[in-house]
Amino acid sequence: MSQRRLRQFASHQRQLRRARRQYAACLDSPPGDLPGIQRVPSNPEKLSHNKTFGPLPLFYEDLFFVCADCNSEEIWAAADQKWWYEEFKADINSIATRCPTCRAAINARPMQQPAEEPEQEQPLLATSA
Ligand SMILES: [Zn+2]
Questions:
Q1: 29 three-state secondary structure
Q2: Distance between CA atoms of residues 88 and 46, nearest Å
Q3: Cα–ligand 1 centroid distance for 76 (angstroms)
Q4: DSSP string for 51-110
Q5: pTM of the full structure
Q6: Which of 20, 76, 113, 124 is the most interior residue, by most CB within 10 Å?
Q7: pLDDT tens-place values along the chain, 129 residues long
Q8: 129 CA distance to ligand 1 centroid (A)?
């Protein structure tokens, strides 16, 4: 490696270290560097059902959320996100809001019966005698 390339390399390494320090300073623990946090790469072809002008994710990352019903603290696993968006073909802007227990409780509820009101007979067309 030439002296010039060595200097460029060293300069690049310093820039990287500075960027990492700045990143760590603005976030106490950068995502992806937290132990136990999983990342899964996305498959852009399987996301083509999304008609969005925004960027599609390059990867999924374990996501922390609070259940909307019971307020329990939950992790939406990266692999589950991949299935939700790429296999179930959900909208890329939809996110998990309920823990598995609350979701199961909703799914176990019997289908709501339609309102008790008798259906009004709708006159179809005025019939001529
Ligand atoms: Zn819940």
A1: coil
A2: 10
A3: 13
A4: --SSPPPSEEE-EEEE-TTT--EEEE-HHHHHIIIIIS---TT----S-HHHHHHHHHSP
A5: 0.58
A6: 76
A7: 788 888 888 877 777 777 666 655 545 555 555 667 888 899 989 998 888 777 888 889 999 999 999 999 999 999 999 999 999 999 998 999 999 999 999 999 887 666 666 556 665 666 555
A8: 61
Q: Which two tokens stand for residue 60?
A: 């999924």
Distance 125 CA to ligand 1 centre (A): 50
Distance 11 CA to ligand 1 centre (A): 50
* Cα separation values, 41 from 99, 116, 120, Å: 24, 49, 54
User: Closest Cα partner for 56 from 69, 68, 41?
Assistant: 41
Q: Which amino acid is at 56?
A: L
Tokens 């937290």, located at residue: 34
Cα of 77 to ligand 1 centre, how many Å?
Answer: 16
Which structure tokens are listed for 107? 């799914």
How many A from CA of 70 to the centre of ligand 1?
4
